[in-house]
Design brief:
The chain is of the alpha/beta class and 570 residues long. It has 4 domains: 51 residues, no CATH class; 51 residues, no CATH class; 236 residues, 3-Layer(aba) Sandwich (Rossmann fold); 133 residues, 3-Layer(aba) Sandwich (Rossmann fold), CATH 3.40.50. Helix content is 31%, strand content 19%. A 7-stranded parallel β-sheet has the order 9-13-8-1-4-5-14, with helices on both faces. The protein has a 6-stranded parallel β-sheet with strand order 16-15-17-18-19-20. The longest helix is centred in the first third of the chain and has 20 residues. The radius of gyration is 27 Å and the shape is globular.
C-alpha cells in the first residue's frame, strides 16, 4: 500500500479503497500524501478515523480515568465502543448528566447501553423505560423543552392501510418517476395482498393546478384510488400549502393529540387513521415535501431509495422490543434500500414502532430511474376522490411574477449506446474526451456521458470538448439513469453511486488499467488496458467492420483464468 495515493480518489471512492488497510504505518503514509496533496478535510478525517480505530482497537478502556469534560463527542463515541459492561456505561452516563450534560454525548452512551444490553442473554425482564413526564417537567432548565427527542403527537394503536404515492407534475406533465413509483407500488401491494391475505390499495395523490387530467393516467399505471386537490395557486410547488394539503388528506382532517385521534371527517373510501406506506419522488421538490410531510405525520423517512420490498423482520434491539435479550417479529415492514454514503455498499432502512410510539406511514423517497415505467393499462378502473379543504392565505406568502426556464441539457436516455468517461482520462483529459467522442460517432445512435469524478474534478479541458464534461451528462445516483443496449465504461472504477445509473444496461463493457476495479464485478466484458490505446482500436474496428483483439494473457493460473466472476477479460 506504499504506492497508494488518496489524491487519485473521489471522496465517495476513498472509503472503499482503504477499507481493508489495517496497517497503521501504511495509513499514516496515506494520510501524509493527502495532506501534502489536496488536503481535503473530509478525506483527512476519514483516514484519521481509520488510524484511530486500529490504534485503540485492542486497548482496554479504564472508565475511571476518562475525563468526559475534556473529551469531544467523537472522543466519547470512540471510547464507549470498547466498553462491554453495562454498569460501567451507566456510570459514564451519570457522570456526563451531572457534568456538561451534552445531548449528543448522552445519546451516544445510551445507544451503547442499549446495544450491549440487547446483545446479552436477558432474563426477559422489561427494560426500564424513561418516565412518562412531559418535556416541560423533565427539563425545567431548558428554554425549549419541546426539543426533547421524544415525539408526543404519535398515535397509539392506530389503524393503517394502503400505500400512498405522491405523483409529482412539472410544467403540467406527470414526471416519469411518478409512473415508476406507481408501477412499483402496484407490484408491492399485489404481493402484499397475496402474502397477508389482505385487500389494500395503491393511492395516488395529485396536488396542483389542472391536475385532474392525470387521473386516468395514474390509474392506468397502477393506482386504485386517486386523491386530487386543485387550485390555481398551486401551479408552482410551495412548501407550506403542499405539505398542509397532503397531511390533511393523510389524516382525513383529524388531529393527533397525546396519542389520540380527535376531530376528522368520515370518508366513504377509507376507514383508517393514516397510510401504512407512502412514497415520494427523490426530485428537488419531492425531497423537500417528503421531509416536511413525514415530520408532520410523526414518522421517519428513508431518502433516495433505489430498492423496495415488504416482508416480516426479526429485531432484538431493546429500544424497539422493550425487553432486553428477547427478539420480536415486526410484520409488514417496508424495507427501503439506498446507496450508502461510503459509496461501496447499500443500507436497508426500516421504520419500526417502539413500545412508546408508532411510526406510520413508513415512508421513503425514490431515486428517479430506479424502477421501470410499467405499460399503462387503459382498461384499469379506479376511484377518484376530490379533496376539499380551505387553503389559508398565509400559506401563500411568496408569488412568482416572472421566470426564465433553464436549458434542460442533454437527455442520455433512449440511446442505443452510451460511452461513459471517468477519471481514467486524467493523464490527458482533452485527448481522452476526444477519443470517447470518436468512438460514439462510430455508432449510429450513441451519446457521451461522464462520471461524477469528471464533473467535480479539477481537470482542464480544451473548449471544443469542455461542453461534454458538465453535470447535465453525469450518470449515476445524482445524475441520469440510463439503460442502453451497450454501455461502454471508459476509465470508471465503479462506485455504487455510478452503478445505480447504468446497472440496467443490456451489455456493459468496461475499459480499465486496474484489473481489480469494482466495475469488473458487474460488467459483461472487461478490457484490461490503457484507454488511450484501446479506444482508437475499437473506433477503427467499428469503422472497418472488423475486430481483431487478442485475448490477454491471464494473470491467474488455469485454462479458464481469463473468465472472471464479472466480465470476461480481453
Amino acid at each position: 500500500m506504499t504506492d497508494f495515493d488518496p489524491n487519485d480518489y473521489e471522496m465517495a471512492e476513498l472509503g472503499p479503497a482503504i477499507k481493508d488497510v489495517d496497517d497503521i504505518a501504511a495509513l499514516h503514509a496515506i494520510l501524509d500524501k493527502e495532506k501534502t496533496g489536496q488536503n481535503r478535510p473530509g478525506a483527512v478525517a476519514l483516514i484519521e478515523s481509520r488510524i484511530e480505530k486500529y490504534e485503540h482497537e485492542d486497548e482496554d478502556v479504564d472508565v475511571g480515568s476518562l475525563n468526559l469534560d475534556e473529551m469531544s463527542t467523537a472522543d466519547v463515541g470512540n471510547a464507549v465502543q470498547s466498553i462491554e459492561d453495562v454498569d460501567e456505561l451507566r456510570t459514564l452516563l451519570e457522570r456526563e448528566e451531572a457534568g456538561q450534560d451534552r445531548g449528543g454525548v448522552t445519546r451516544l452512551i445510551q445507544s451503547r447501553i442499549d446495544s450491549v444490553a440487547g446483545s446479552e442473554e436477558g432474563d426477559g425482564e422489561d427494560v426500564e423505560l424513561e418516565d412518562e413526564l412531559p418535556p416541560e417537567e423533565k427539563h425545567p432548565d431548558l428554554s425549549h423543552p419541546t426539543a426533547d427527542k421524544r415525539h408526543v403527537r404519535a398515535l397509539q394503536d392506530g389503524t393503517y392501510r394502503d400505500m400512498w404515492v405522491y405523483c409529482e407534475t412539472q410544467a403540467g406533465e406527470l414526471v416519469d418517476v411518478s409512473k415508476e413509483m406507481l408501477g412499483k407500488a402496484r407490484e408491492l401491494m399485489d404481493d402484499y395482498n397475496d402474502d397477508y391475505d389482505a385487500d389494500e390499495r395503491v393511492v395516488a395523490v395529485l396536488i396542483g393546478d389542472d391536475v385532474s387530467k392525470h387521473t386516468d393516467d395514474v390509474i392506468a399505471y397502477g393506482a386504485d384510488v386517486v386523491v386530487v386537490h386543485e387550485d390555481e395557486r398551486l401551479r408552482r410547488f410551495q412548501h407550506t400549502p403542499f405539505c398542509e394539503i397532503f397531511c390533511d388528506m393523510a389524516r382525513a382532517g383529524a388531529s393527533h393529540d397525546g396519542g389520540e385521534v380527535t376531530g376528522g371527517r368520515d370518508e366513504d373510501w377509507r376507514d383508517y387513521d393514516k397510510p401504512r406506506y407512502v412514497l415520494f419522488p427523490a426530485t428537488n421538490n419531492g425531497r423537500d415535501l417528503s421531509a416536511l410531510v413525514q415530520a408532520e405525520l410523526d414518522s421517519g423517512l428513508a431518502s433516495d431509495c433505489s430498492g423496495l420490498y415488504i416482508e416480516d423482520t426479526v429485531i432484538s434491539n431493546p429500544v424497539k422490543t422493550g425487553v432486553a435479550g428477547e427478539k420480536k417479529t415486526f410484520e409488514r415492514v417496508l424495507h427501503m434500500k439506498r446507496p450508502d454514503f461510503s459509496g461501496f455498499e447499500y443500507s436497508t432502512i426500516l421504520c419500526l414502532d417502539n413500545p412508546r410510539r408508532e411510526f406510520h406511514p413508513q415512508g421513503g423517497s425514490v431515486i428517479p430511474g430506479s424502477f421501470e415505467i410499467p405499460e399503462p393499462d387503459s382498461d384499469r378502473e379506479g376511484d377518484v376522490v376530490h379533496h376539499e379543504a380551505t387553503l389559508d392565505d398565509d400559506w401563500f406568502t411568496i408569488s412568482v411574477t416572472d421566470h426564465d426556464q433553464l436549458d434542460e441539457g442533454i437527455d442520455l436516455t433512449g440511446h442505443e449506446v452510451i460511452v461513459a468517461v471517468g477519471r481514467g482520462i486524467g493523464a490527458n483529459p482533452t485527448k481522452g474526451m476526444e477519443l470517447a467522442l470518436d468512438l460514439a460517432d462510430a455508432f449510429e445512435d450513441a451519446e457521451v456521458g461522464v462520471s461524477r469524478g469528471i464533473v467535480t474534478g479539477s481537470y482542464q479541458f480544451d473548449g471544443h470538448v469542455e461542453q461534454y464534461t458538465h453535470e447535465d451528462r453525469q450518470i449515476g445516483e445524482t445524475g441520469q439513469v440510463v439503460a442502453p443496449r451497450l454501455y461502454i465504461a471508459v476509465g470508471i472504477s465503479g462506485a455504487v453511486q455510478h452503478k445505480v445509473g447504468m446497472d440496467e444496461s443490456e451489455t456493459i463493457v468496461a475499459i480499465n488499467t486496474d484489473p481489480e476495479a469494482r466495475i469488473r464485478d458487474f460488467s459483461d466484458y472487461f478490457v484490461e488496458g490503457d484507454l488511450f490505446e484501446v479506444l482508437p482500436r475499437l473506433t477503427k474496428a467499428l469503422q472497418d467492420g472488423e475486430l481483431d483483439l487478442e485475448l490477454a494473457e491471464a494473470k491467474a493460473a488455469g485454462d479458464d483464468a481469463a473468465a472472471t466472476d464479472g466480465g470476461d477479460q480481453v
